[in-house]
């Protein structure tokens, strides 16, 4: 990693002792900062607390004392999930103390170029595709960010021979100041995380930060079909490479004659791609744009696209049981994601849905239910989804207590050649800690049917 002096003798407060907080605190200590860590839920006996204290880092557990913010604090590093309404962060902002996420630290120390990917939907699939294509092409990629590996940990290991493929959420991007990826990918913009950002404008602003600091030697990959993405790309001073599923773009990545093209070069026939769903074509076009800029060969791209079946919990094929195909799309935590999943299938479909009630209705889902023959519903939103099902003329509607019961019930009402898909259209937090836990329980329940 780069040996920088930016944080030497600086007084830094790290708020939140999850994976990113622990990694940031250890890195800042290594860089010579005077670090204090504060976590509301941590206790003195936690291994991470003891580890930091052994290094000489001060750790304050159990509450958020406002006395931690003073004129002597130079910087706040926050866990991405902690809202800006947190009293400590609000006070820091009032006192004009910069507040960042660990992504900013990763950028400052990284010797490797960064390919950054964000968007309301498709981030993880696109990030994984880029990583796999670059790996197949021998480009020594490392994967990091919102996909599960703390960015500043990966950046410490990266050399100039690597490239870091980094998935970024709006939460992470909002806490950046100088962050400048060599290649920035913005897939799409839809209403999301408004409970965190407060307004769509604030959410869009956070997403747009991926382009904000780019210069002429960088590249911005832009979804030509998304007006808001195109508008945000105007912030960038980088070379722009557009992709589109609807328009032939001579200088971009596009679809023509049932094939994917990069500029004027045919890459692959769409029928040879194994990843299901028309919505994934956008993700694939974006990934191809990024890896071609890094010198990946067509052979490497084609090898990945003819073998990559998807990311776990994202329209993941689970099993074929007596000619019923089961798919796990637990990551579909909003209506848009579920609508895209339903568009991936043209055969009779049984939809398993429901979860945390965030106050919204589900009428926007109605146009995508034409192939749905049954809905199995659970969680807080089951009554709302039942109304939508009835108004859409779906004859088989069942309400159950949990995902395991939903799998059993779906199988009981299914016929040969049906698709059974968990695509909840809701967050998981009414019954589960994470969408991953929800998806894992679905997978286990499917395997028990055998």
TrEMBL record:
Annotated ATP binding sites: 119-125
Gene3D superfamilies: Mur ligase, C-terminal domain, Mur-like, catalytic domain, NAD(P)-binding Rossmann-like Domain
Pathway(s) of this molecule: Cell wall biogenesis; peptidoglycan biosynthesis
Stretches assigned to the Mur ligase C-terminal domain: 313-426
GO terms for MF: ATP binding; UDP-N-acetylmuramoylalanine-D-glutamate ligase activity
Annotated family: Belongs to the MurCDEF family.
Protein name: UDP-N-acetylmuramoylalanine--D-glutamate ligase
Species assigned in the record: Metabacillus sediminilitoris
